[in-house]
Amino acid sequence: MILDRFKLEGRIALVTGASAGLGAAIALALAEAGAQVACHGNTRSPAATCETIERAGGIAYSLTGDLSKPETAAALISQTLMRFGGLDILINNAGTIRRAPAVDYSEQDWATVIEVNLSSVFRLSQSAGKQMIEARRGGKIVNIASLLSFQGGITVPAYAASKGGVAQLTKALANEWARHGINVNAIAPGYIRTTNTAALQADEVRNRQILERIPAGRWGEPEDLAGAAVFLSSAASDYVHGHVLLVDGGWMGR
């Protein structure tokens, strides 16, 4: 049955940035599809996400760690392996954004955004990919890119640079690891209601301009990414490699 290819029973997933927003919605979706999920929180505990999964009859594990620190990535992979005995799915969702005009952008803000949004994605993927290759079971790595993987944005130079890098890293890793049965793909969300977009939602002019361009006529909700995440994490996407899937209400087609 074709629908069986979307099921994730027996699969083990790690979702970074799963305390709220996109990460929480993705973690819940993977658990609903049958996966056991390690939920990571960067500075905020993902306990609420884990509790929601467990109340629904799923299995979850709470992890915390600051991804601006280089050693955190390997620690998260190691802890997931120790808890579940394997790793089949990695969702690189954790991210941050700092806003300022380019001429005023601080070195610290630049370094933090690049570290969390791009360098940690490489480190997590490297550790997970090594484990997947050695286990010879294949695997799925899904990175969270952005509309700013394609566009430049305004007053977010580090974020745009990091998300452009995520798109290219996705393709680079896919080229190397496809032969090992590891699918590396990305989801590029459009304008989604999260804390990262709170400033835009609160700006009456920008909010109106954004809504006027989105063919769907609304902001996205974190749950709008659930189907894409399950697809790219499942056997249904076994022949999809190095793709950046837009979930944007039609923004980029406008």
Report on the structure:
With about 250 residues, the protein is of the alpha/beta class. It has a single domain, classed as NAD(P)-binding Rossmann-like Domain (Rossmann fold, 3-Layer(aba) Sandwich). It has 8 helices and 7 strands, in the order E-H-E-H-E-H-E-H-E-H-E-H-H-H-E. It has helices at about 20-30, 45-55, 70-85, 105-135, 155-175, 200, 205-215, 225-235, and strands spanning about 10-15, 35-40, 60-65, 90, 140-145, 180-190, 245. It has a 7-stranded parallel beta sheet with strand order 3-2-1-4-5-6-7, sandwiched between helices. Helix 4 links the parallel strand 4 (about 90) and strand 5. Helix 1 (about 20-30) packs across helix 8, helix 3 (about 70-85) packs parallel to helix 4 (about 105-135) and helix 4 packs parallel to helix 5 (about 155-175). The longest helix has 29 residues, at about 105-135. It starts with 11 loop residues before the first strand and ends in a 7-residue tail after the last strand. The mean pLDDT is about 95.
Could you write a compact summary of the structure shown?
The protein is α/β, with parallel strands linked by helices and 254 residues long.
